[in-house]
Amino acid sequence: MSKLINKFLNDVSPIFIIGFLVLSSLVVNISADDEVESVTIIGTKDDVKDLPGSGAVISNDDLQKAMDTDIQKILTAVPGIYMRTEEGYGLRPNISIRGTAIERSGKVTIMEDGVLVAPSPYTSSAAYYFPTTGRIHSVEVLKGPAVVSQGPQTIGGAINLISTPIPEVNSGKFVQEIGENGMARTHAYYGASQGNFGALVEVHEHSSDGFDSIANVGGDTGFDKSDLMIKARYSSGNHTVTFKRVDLDEDSNQSYVGLSQASFMANPRMRYGATAYDKMMNDGEQTSLTYVGDFDNFDVVFTSWQNDYHRDWFKVSDFNNDKEHGEQDDINELISDANNGSANAQAILDGQLPVEIEYKHNNRYYTNEGYQFTVSTEIGVHALTVGYRDMEDSESRIQAHEYADQAADGSLSALYGYVGLSGSNNRLRESSATSYYLEDTMDFGKLAVTVGFRSEEYDQRHRRWGEGAGPNLTAVRITSVRDTFAENDHNTSSFGATYDLNDTTTLVAGFHEGMTPMFGADPEEADNMELGVRYSEGTTNIEAFYFASDYSRLAAECTLVSGASCDADESAVFSGGEAEVSGLEFSGSWMLQGDNGVVYPISVNYTSTDATFKNSSSSDYFGTVSAGDDLPYIPDSQSSIVVGFINDNGLSGNARLVNVGSSCSLAACGTYNEIEAHSYLDLNLRKALNDSMSVYFILENTLDSEDLISRAPSEGARSQKPRTMKVGFSYDF
């Protein structure tokens, strides 16, 4: 944490400080403080009923019940969302909304406090970053036509994470949690308000030794992740300026190399010895300045931001064994060969044959900066909103290779060599984008109609160089070997309507054109519709939606984790042709009153999805696809049931059962691409000792299931996190 504090003190941009003082001076003569919430896209749970489409708010009270730090578990409370686990902790989630491609959440708009936080949303949205969920105050999920106001990914939906707000009265919170496998988590914040000023300081430290073992050589498989956030606010009358800074740092001894089927059956929670050097290192800074103004006839929200993020995922790439053992080099291909019966391939993986191992620094520098504003007003029956965003983002790659020798006893030599800084390993990709949207909600009493329009214009440039970057990772490039430039212009529209049948029941209908920008290629496009009903009376809330997406162009970007046969042309975009996704979503919550002051909350979420290719095709990414094949990693169903109790003596608890249906890792689903249906059960118990302090107990994967839940990359099998116990306490002050 001291490293983050020092970096913050050295790096805070004077531009943002000057901007903060200037904007503060503009409103200094306006009187009377007024509380201003964080920038949201929905608002509160009560506001969901007014959406011209489907959406959900997971409140801070909801998050406190389970004390989840894994966004993938949190989102099981929202139907229509699918997740693929990588490391078991939710550090790098793979999220799909209504059948969008699941890989690295690249087809979902991810925001924090209304600001795009993907390291480069236009250039490389699948960049392996997600905000630290343990420090998040609440979560919003937006689906349907209203997502056109967010973008740039507008097919499935958007997720907006709300950071801890500055309190209106001096207060804070301290949470300390410990658990199995050396897990420790500390979360603390304190905020104060005095006159027109308010401030907040928040720290979040999370670490673990990991639950996997490493064959032959042993080693740490855990992580250490730190966040430091500060906020400063000046408020006067109906005007507020908020400065926010987040510094993050992570070292994870993680690998996304899975197991062959034989290895998985022998020990599903073991890693190959070759992965002992695998390590994710990342750090970043996020800075924003937000002005919120409430004028007589209109409201204004203006935000300027700058996000810088660096990550180096150093990991196994190839086994240089072609001549000696007659097997393929690539780790994905080696696992595939082992699955297909190659004894040599399995022996190499098990560390029983000598071989040179090639490791790759997937080393990237990302930038994401710009400004955006919305202006909203009401004229008669019209509630009008205009939004505009101007931004730039980039991805710079300076990727080298290192090597180690694996002996016949599975031991590894020290790393040696530092080569390969050319071509696709030494390149810069940049995007410059402007977008605007118009939204008009017309209130006709029981009927409300919303129409929207979004325009995206983005220019992209891709440059590659020859040798030039050295071991210090300084971008000294010598010879340009590729320089391409592309311009894109895309418009989408939306329509949504709600009709109040009575005080408890509302009908919902919507249609919107969606798109996902792809770097250097035409965007992915789909027409989307939904029909639904909402019912709310007392503590009973029920929603049911039918949704459908008709893809005129399914697109995918090659990444090493995709498992596709396109690693030689990493980041190339491939077309999957046309596809159809349709399904049913149901969510319901009830509060049952028991005896002796005990209340029993119950919630149920269920999604059924049919996601298929409409045409046959063949490509290095999608492989051989036949019309009717299922889209990868979209299970046929998913459900969650949470049953709890709340006693007036301060004791409460919940049981959460999650079931995930079957799916495949590739469209042409072979034996070793199948992922069978699986489930897990989590329990938690909390006791309030007084108004300020409570203690809690969490048991994850209570039945210690060892189901195969993922094959990424390609055929590499992964198991779910084992049964894990955690205990903690929270103190409000």
Concise summary:
By secondary structure, the protein is mainly β. It is 8% helix and 55% strand.
Structure explained in plain terms:
With 733 residues, the protein is mainly beta. It has one domain (2-732): TonB-dependent receptor, beta-barrel domain (Maltoporin, Chain A), CATH 2.40.170.20. The protein is built from eight helices and 39 strands. The strands form seven sheets. The chain has a 22-stranded antiparallel β-barrel. The protein has a five-stranded mixed beta sheet with strand order 1-6-7-4-5. Helix 7 (331-339) crosses helix 8. It is globular. 49% of the residues are buried. The model is unreliable at 11-37 and 469-478 (pLDDT under 50).
Please describe the topology of this protein.
Blueprint: H1 2-11, H2 14-26, E1 55-58, H3 60-66, H4 71-74, E2 81-84, E3 94-97, E4 109-112, E5 115-116, E6 136-143, E7 157-163, E8 171-179, E9 183-194, E10 197-208, E11 213-214, E12 223-236, E13 239-252, H5 261-266, E14 270-271, E15 279-294, E16 298-320, H6 322-325, H7 331-339, H8 343-349, E17 355-379, E18 382-398, E19 401-406, E20 416-419, E21 423-444, E22 447-465, E23 480-500, E24 505-518, E25 521-537, E26 540-557, E27 573-593, E28 599-613, E29 617-619, E30 623-625, E31 637-646, E32 651-660, E33 663-664, E34 674-675, E35 678-688, E36 693-700, E37 708-711, E38 717-719, E39 724-732
Parallel strand pairs: 4-7, 11-14
Antiparallel strand pairs: 1-6, 2-3, 4-5, 6-7, 8-9, 8-39, 9-10, 10-12, 12-13, 13-15, 15-16, 16-17, 17-18, 17-19, 18-21, 19-20, 21-22, 22-23, 23-24, 24-25, 25-26, 26-27, 27-28, 28-31, 29-30, 31-32, 32-35, 33-34, 35-36, 36-39, 37-38
Helix pairs in contact: 7-8
